[in-house]
Amino acid sequence: MSTTTPTLAHRDRARDELGRSAFDVLVVGGGIIGISTAWTASQAGLRVALVDGGDFAGATSSASTKLVHGGLRYLQTGNLRLVSENHRERRELARHVAPHLVNRRTFLVPVYRDGPHGAAKLGAGVALYSALSGFGDGVGRLVGARRATELVPSLRADGLRAAAVYTDHQMNDARMAVMTVRAAVEAGATVLNHARVEDLLVADGRVVGAEVRDVLTGEMFDVRATRVVNATGPWLDRLRRLENPFAASSVRLSKGAHLVIRPPAQWQAGLTVPVDRSRVSFAIPWEDHLLVGTTDEEYDGDPARVAVTDADVSQILGELEPAVALASADVVSTFSGVRVLPLTEGNSSHAPRETVITEGPGGMLSVAGGKWTTFRHIGRQVADRLGVPLPTLDRMPLPGIASPVAITGWLIAEGLPADVAAHLASHYGSHALDLARLVRAEPRLADRLHPDGPDIAAQVVHARDHEWAADEDDVLRRRTTVALRGLDTPAVRSAVRALLAH
User: Fold this and answer.
1) Do 150 and 163 form a contact (C-beta atoms < 8 A)?
2) How far lies 96's CA from each of 68, 101, 406, in Å?
3) Model pTM greater than 0.85?
4) Which of 22, 50, 355, 489 could be a cystine partner for 38, CB 3.0 to 4.6 Å?
5) Does the pLDDT at position 346 exceed 60?
């Protein structure tokens, strides 16, 4: 790329600021936990720096099942506190913080004669689930087989006795993360992606910053801060051992693989399919496709190289087969990530999902585990451990908050196709109006990146200038839905490169 591109100009300014300023907090790791910590501390008035060796949400945080949910399966373990906490955050996100990014979704759990759970048990379970949510989305209930197949036409009818119906929410995890980075920056944080910590700075036995390499230019610079937070997810122990070479392992990794499948007959609900008494698998309408998965198996490889295998595809489709027959030939894309779990004994699928915050001998805080749904709560937990006075604006919305329906209508009036308008409104909120202004100034930016998808060229320019996108993967995998739709062709990548370099 040319050194005159807006992306690199923004990076130069951020890198200069990081190198010359003294910060109260340096957050290492731009997954959602690190981003939330940076947002919370910035809201409290601290000078905050955030760096990540790859892209924001470039690993685990953009490889989730894309749910904002209470965690129905946690009822099986009796963890009512966690379910209630999850529901509380789910409601806040859907109603006050990100209603433009979080969408309500009906789910059903089919009950088969040979299944692991009976109808009475599941009916009671979804009723309790609704009660723990304060009945904000109605009451979970049982429906008959006929109604179940109306909601999910592909549902296997043979042996179907009933279905338990409940409500949760879903999102685009990468877009949520990018919007939260924007919120942190608007609150005063200085951020830089593709900036890898090579070593820690230590003075008088205390960690006081980090030596950072700009991965795109190779330039080294120091970032100095009173406190450092290690939110590097799968790389947590790597950074801990820069503080203490003798630090024992503190986390375990679990691989979660997902498939994106061409849409079958129109589904009105997502499927939650019990695999056994502790695990479920999902098949959820998402971005005009089905998102299916996930696996939950111990992973001891390089987190940067985690990938979906043929065995993963067979496992996911096989676990769903008792309820719905999906074909591997219809898989358009796959993705996988690694969950970070506290180090415990036993199968990873039974490991606790709580967040664990520890302090090293040099004062660095390391944050392990957690759930997407409760990312704001975890950010507040970390800030509390830092001694930060928590901000009182508990319902501070993410940037772009607006009615997607209203924004869609406005974009259609601007001349954008209905599917493009609805897509932009539900991923950008009011910032979709910025995209419309780009198109008005340069009509070619209304061109679709691929004829079979709703993402347009204006999104690349917006991602370059306002969302820290530095390369094609940043755009295609995390700023748009192109890659997940299986539309990441050489021609598309070439067009995106040209737009980034313009």
Assistant:
1) no
2) 14, 11, 17
3) yes
4) 50
5) no
